[in-house]
Write a structure and sequence with these properties.
alpha/beta; 20 strands; five-stranded mixed beta sheet; Lyase, Ornithine Decarboxylase, Chain A, domain 1; TIM Barrel; elongated; 422 residues
Length: 422
């Protein structure tokens, strides 16, 4: 990817060296007091399994990511999938306080929830909306993603009947083979929009397929080129979208030429790097970005028991104790999002000690070995995910154990579990 884009929309230099140029930028952080943290520690005592959201970490991540963009670029917080498992309501309110300019969600239901909390927020549905729900979106002033003629006509009909102006973002397919209009079909979509006086083209977007892989930027460069050409075509036909956006987390951090007028921060906002190589490249070239994980997942000891060598543990007798052991039952299981693949390999932290899952993960509980924990007590705190002193059970570590990605580990935490802001 080249260091400087064309025109006023794509014109900043990249911070990754040859064949990309480097650029040093100053980050910023924001600090919070401890009163909220203390009160929430008391509040969390009523829960047996819960998720904690670190407001200071989330706000700091947002501040740092915003600092990597130009003054003319707005910041959109991606809060789909229950804010990547962190809790939609909690994250939206923290992000708003941190100065977020817009929110992106996958579903209209999430968009309507945010609208109820924030009547004037810019909210974009980046996923598919059923045609029978389009009226709800128009009446709530929700921005919709479009890429086909039928949807545009349906939105126009609804907006005309309601005497409202609908707002849409054209999604361009540049290489992911997901939703979006292909280059050959773009003119037909533009024709439909020009014939829809009640539909305002507020934005145009695309999504990168592998921009997290800095070892080979050729495909990302191709996608950016296709996107620029399509944006030029849209403007050449008389449409002037305000929000031009394609930059995801990795692009925000490493490629300023992708930033456009709006960036969409997803996984990085929650303190998780998009990929190991993204983090390595960022640190190698001095990008001022020090992300802090936002989420901790905790539970409590429900029962402690001592069992002799040879005792079987759990369903299927998959594990037999090789020594006299002290075991603890913890009320969290795969219903809560604690993956069954962590049977006999999962790790927790109790009283400063790392405690392994013994036997299979159950639907609603796990058994852990607490033999090394002195003075173990019922209802003592168990850290399932997060940091406790010098010990950590990270989303990346769990993802490696399960041969998946940290996105999935976080997003699959059951949304019914309490989210507590600390």
């Amino acid at each position: 990817m080249q260091g400087r884009g064309r025109g006023s929309v794509f014109g900043r230099r990249s911070c990754v060296p040859a064949p990309l140029d480097t650029s040093k930028r100053n980050g910023c952080t924001r600090s919070f007091g401890s009163k909220r943290r203390d009160s929430q520690e008391i509040l969390s005592m009523k829960y047996r399994t819960w998720v904690e959201i670190d407001e200071r970490a989330l706000s700091s991540n947002i501040s740092q990511l915003r600092a990597l963009t130009s003054s003319g670029t707005r910041f959109c917080a991606v809060v789909k999938a229950n804010a990547y498992g962190h809790g939609l309501r909690e994250v939206v309110h923290i992000a708003a306080r941190a100065g977020t300019d817009a929110f992106a969600v996958d579903s209209l239901d999430d968009a309507l929830s945010i609208r109820g909390w924030m009547p004037s927020a810019l909210i974009v549905v980046i996923g598919y909306t059923l045609h029978e729900r389009l009226r709800d979106a128009v009446l709530a002033d929700i921005h919709l993603t479009v890429y086909d003629v039928d949807t545009i006509r349906a939105i126009e009909d609804i907006a005309a009947k309601e005497a409202r102006q609908a707002h849409v973002h054209i999604k361009l397919e540049t290489g992911t083979a997901r939703q979006g209009v292909l280059a050959d079909d773009l003119n037909a979509v533009i024709d439909a929009l020009q014939s829809a006086p009640h539909v305002h083209v507020a934005g145009v977007s695309t999504h990168f397929a592998n921009i997290e892989d800095t070892s080979d930027t050729r495909f990302a460069t191709l996608q950016l080129s296709r996107f620029r050409e399509a944006v030029d075509a849209v403007r050449a036909r008389g449409l002037n979208p305000e929000w031009v956006h394609c930059a995801c987390s990795a692009a925000i951090i490493l490629y300023p030429e992708t930033h456009g007028t709006l960036v969409r921060a997803g996984i990085s906002m929650y303190g998780i790097w998009p990929s190991p190589i993204t983090e390595q490249t960022s640190r190698k070239h001095g990008v001022p970005c020090d992300l802090t994980p936002v989420l901790s997942w905790k539970s409590r000891i429900a029962q402690v028991k001592s069992l002799p060598t040879g005792s079987p543990v759990g369903y299927g007798l998959t594990e037999v104790l090789k020594r006299n052991s002290r075991l603890a039952v913890v009320p969290v299981g795969y219903w809560d999002g604690y993956d069954r693949g962590l049977s006999s390999i999962g790790e927790t932290i109790v009283g400063g000690s790392r405690c392994r899952v013994v036997g299979r993960v159950f639907m609603n509980m796990i058994v852990i070995d607490v033999s090394t924990v002195p003075n173990i007590e019922r209802e003592q705190e168990v850290l399932l995910l997060g940091r406790a002193g010098r010990h950590e059970v990270s989303a990346n570590r769990i993802a490696d154990q399960l041969e998946t990605i940290p996105y999935e580990i976080l997003a699959r935490i059951n949304p019914t579990l309490p989210r507590v802001i600390v």
